[in-house]
Specification:
This protein has nine helices and five strands; from the N terminus they run αααααβαββαββαα. Among the domains are: about 5-65, Helix Hairpins (Orthogonal Bundle); about 170-240, 2-Layer Sandwich (Alpha-Beta Plaits), CATH 3.30.70.330. The protein has a five-stranded antiparallel sheet with strand order 2-3-1-5-4, with helices on both faces. The longest helix has about 45 residues, at about 65-105. By secondary structure, it is of the alpha+beta class. It holds the Pfam family DnaJ. Keywords: RNA-binding.
Length: about 290
């Protein structure tokens, strides 16, 4: 009987809340529970009589003022004991957690060493990425340099500016046009200039506002002939200039005209940079074939 909660037997809340019930409220709860557990209503329950006797005993204890007070004190002591037990468990769990944390910290690697290892790992990865990027650009540059080499077969071997180079600038034409309509492709330029002689190579610069290209002719005569006529569509004609005018021998000196300079200015600094870059690649390709 010590483990029985008499308030719960009557269907009432226990603990501090149960101690506040009046005798009238306890009697009312007993009558309601007695109607529910009476053996006459539980003919099929073999424990009906025993359960009803427990109900009566709980009611007799709670109805008696002294017995009820002792029972309330017993419940209070049990609650205090349970609370202290929970507190001890909580403290014990905290002590165990702290001990485990100290053990983990004791076996954990030094923070400074861990930072150094992380720094070295990142530095290695960065070094690998830099090497990869450099290799990628090197392969890209090699692939770009190989294009003029394939397209520059048969370029003359006369010297330019007194140096032994594999390109005759007098055979090279600078061609430019406005980027309107269909524009000009390398094949179309080759077809247009082939009317004046065999075309060795055509290199087009990709620009947004103005198209430009270098056309390498087989002979100087073909290059000269191509510069003496209007070419392309009338709505978008080609501006054709020699990269280096053909030298005229045994001819009286003439006053230099500023017309080529004026036309060169039409091409622009960006075209000149492109032209120099392509010429260098063409010259290197011609040297390798020697």
């Amino acid at each position: 009987m010590d483990d029985i909660d008499h308030y719960k037997i009557l269907g009432l809340p226990s603990g501090e809340e149960g101690a506040k019930f009046t005798e009238k409220e306890i009697s009312k709860a007993y009558r309601a529970k007695a109607l529910e557990l009476h053996p006459d209503k539980r003919l099929d329950d073999p424990d009906a009589h025993a359960n009803f006797q427990i109900l009566k005993s709980s009611y007799e204890i709670l109805k008696d003022e002294k017995a009820r007070k002792l029972f309330d004190d017993l419940l209070r002591v049990k609650r205090e004991h349970q609370r202290r037990h929970l507190e001890r468990d909580s403290k014990r769990q905290k002590m165990v957690s702290d001990l485990e944390a100290r053990e983990r910290a004791g076996f954990a690697p030094d923070a400074a060493a861990k930072d150094r290892d992380e720094e070295e790992r990142i530095a290695r990865k960065l070094k690998e990425e830099i090497a990869r990027i450099r290799a990628m650009h090197a392969n890209k540059g090699a692939a770009t340099a190989s294009v003029p080499k394939r397209e520059s077969r048969g370029v003359g071997k006369e010297s330019v500016g007194g140096a032994k180079l594999g390109l005759d600038k007098e055979k090279v034409l600078k061609v430019s046009w406005e980027k309107v309509g269909e524009g000009y492709t390398a094949q179309r330029l080759r077809d247009l200039f082939s009317k004046f002689g065999e075309v060795e190579d055509v290199v087009i610069k990709d620009a947004k506002k103005r198209g430009s290209a270098l056309v390498v002719m087989t002979t100087k005569d073909a290059a000269v002939a191509a510069t003496q006529t209007v070419m392309g569509d009338l709505s978008n004609p080609l501006l054709v200039l020699p990269l280096q005018p053909v030298a005229v021998t045994d001819a009286p000196p003439v006053q230099k005209s500023d017309e080529p300079d004026r036309l060169n200015n039409l091409i622009g600094a960006s075209y000149q940079t492109f032209e120099d870059s392509v010429l260098q690649k063409l010259q290197k390709a011609a040297q390798k074939r020697k």
